[in-house]
Design goal:
alpha/beta; seven-stranded mixed beta sheet; DUF6615
């Protein structure tokens, strides 16, 4: 993103998504399984991804449904964020499958902007860590109601509510770092205690399950191949498996690390 801004080139969401997936798989090919589906009509409904997290035994699971939005350099806005009823569709699609609805923001800003960032107990506080950041869809929906529509999709309006995507698996402020805490436990704890801390009480937090849904089982059986999919808005699936080997290179999921965003800020 930083390199793209430096040459006045606006990258596409799909480009950043593909780069992130490639980086994940290069670093930890045995613990990251992906599959992609046919191109969806993103302009009308948004293109969603399912992220599924499991332990090394694959006997506990927690999933989220994610839609990526990229910052437009010229306006400092996530232009497609307010498109018709995209947020409602994302929420309903996630709830139907027992998932948490999230947005992943691809962003970059000049340091002169001096946007506030959060103190992290795990990594040094750095603006570049917000290059890939997450926010729950319920907060976005609330912002649309409480803020003027034209301002609810600006970087300035959401920056106080977003977190670096690495917080999903490494947030030390909400979970114990003991080995007893599995990756799915940490994901759920962060979602419940941090992302949704200011949300209404009527939001149902999905439970950790012992088995994944059928389409995830199929992906695990067949590996990294294209699979049939009956969800027209689903672009693909990422399965992240917790590693037992803490001395292994790359992404050490037991310690909860995701790669830094590629040249984000």
């Amino acid at each position: 993103m930083e390199k793209a801004r430096s040459v006045s080139h606006q990258p596409l969401e799909e480009t950043i998504t593909d780069n992130n997936i490639i980086e994940l798989k290069l670093r930890q090919s045995h613990e990251v399984i992906t599959t992609t589906y046919n191109k969806v009509q993103e302009g009308k409904t948004g293109a969603d991804w399912q992220w599924w997290f499991t332990n090394s035994k694959k006997n506990i699971w927690f999933g989220v449904r994610v839609q990526a939005k990229i910052l437009k350099f010229k306006t400092d806005r996530f232009e497609a964020l307010n498109y018709k009823n995209q947020t409602d569709v994302l929420i309903k699609s996630a709830q139907k499958d027992g998932l948490i609805p999230l947005y992943c923001f691809y962003s970059q800003w000049p340091l002169s902007k001096n946007y506030p960032t959060k103190n992290c107990l795990t990594f040094p506080n750095a603006p570049e860590s917000y290059g890939c950041s997450i926010i729950d869809a319920y907060t976005i929906k609330k912002n649309k109601k409480t803020k003027k529509t034209k301002k609810s999709n600006t970087l300035a309006s959401v920056i106080s509510d977003v977190f670096p995507w690495s917080c999903l698996v490494c947030c030390q402020s909400t979970t114990s770092r003991s080995n007893a805490n599995s990756l799915p436990d940490r994901i759920k704890s962060f979602v419940q205690n941090v992302l949704l801390r200011n949300s209404s009480d009527d939001i149902l937090i999905p439970k950790i399950t012992k088995e994944p849904p059928r389409h995830i089982k199929s992906i695990l059986d067949k590996g990294n191949e294209n699979h049939e999919n009956d969800d027209p808005n689903l672009a693909g699936v990422i399965v992240i498996i917790e590693s037992d080997d803490q001395n292994k290179g790359g992404i050490i999921l037991k310690q909860g690390k995701l790669p830094s965003p590629p040249s984000s800020v």
